[in-house]
Amino acid sequence: MQASEVPRAVDAAMSIASSLELAVEDAIVLQDSNKLTLRLLPCDVLARVAPVANQVAQLEIELAQRLTEAGSPVAVLEPRVQPCVYERDGFVVTLWTYYEPATLPEISAADYAHALHRLHTGMRKLDVPTPHFTDRVEQAQQLVASRDRTPELADADRMLLGHTLRDLRQMISEHGCAEQLLHGEPHPGNVLSTNNGPLFIDLETCCRGPVEFDLAHAPDEVSEHYPGVNQDLLRQCRILVLAMITTWRWDRGDQLPNGRQLGMQWLDQIRAAR
């Protein structure tokens, strides 16, 4: 989120929570990316705030409710208020349960894999319209093709990313493996380590595809504990995901610290992998 928007976003979240009779005196910024994540005190509620444009908060709430009912390991909505999307001053706000970090914050690969498998099991029961994973690949392809949006990307690197995204998208699509609803980005940043075990957050990236696409976002050792993995497909998905996240680093609007440095490192990894 743009730095100039943060104070307004915080005010919007605090105002909405107060109007719902939650005690709010302070807001602590926990994460600032495409959404702002706040811990509201003393009510101890987690607020996620995003600009109204291009947000999918309603889908995220629906998925969270249905996955919670299915017993899937996901963060739950705040039970003291209505489970809906609140809007104020150009922002949408959703309110969630705040979880204290676990005493031992490190999640083992086995626990990570077990939680992801449980999540996938719950997701297979849902029939919810979501994008296909190839739609997200196409977004990366469009970014690579736009010199205006990626002005610092060298021609040779642009060609490497473009070919990698195109080739791997086609190869994975032609695999013919079973597809289902996926988290979309179950990387460690979207997994909470709680005293009740790992919980997945940020369901706005959900899409359809093979489970190997999700596994490609997790640490490598997680796949060793996940049953029935197609290793050839997983390798292809890992290269594809690496090309996608590398592409985001060259977006002129990317705000990830050391983003360009990571982009250079990942380009070298893609060359080696290909």
How many beta-strand segments? 9
Query: Which stretches are low in confidence, meaning pLDDT under 50 for 5 or more residues running?
Result: none
Strand content: 15-25%
- Order of SSEs, N→C? HEEEHEEHHHEEEEHHH
Rg, rounded, reads 19 Å
End-to-end separation:
34 Å
- Average pLDDT number: 94
> Tell me about the biggest sheet?
5 strands, antiparallel
Query: Can you count the helices?
Result: 8
The coarse overall form would be globular
As a percent range, the share of helical residues equals 40-55%
Strand line-up in the sheet with most strands: 1-2-3-5-4
Structural class: alpha+beta
Give an overview in words.
This protein has 274 residues and is α+β, with helices and mostly antiparallel strands. The protein is 41% helix and 17% strand. It contains 8 helices and 9 strands. It has helices spanning 6-19, 57-69, 109-123, 133-145, 155-173, 211-215, 231-249, 259-273; strands spanning 24-32, 36-42, 45-51, 86-88, 91-97, 180-182, 191-194, 197-200, 207-209. Strands 1-2-3-5-4 form a 5-stranded antiparallel β-sheet, with helices on one face. β2 and β3 form a beta hairpin. α4 packs antiparallel against α5 and α7 (231-249) runs antiparallel to α8. The two termini are 34 Å apart. The model has no long low-confidence stretch (mean pLDDT 94).
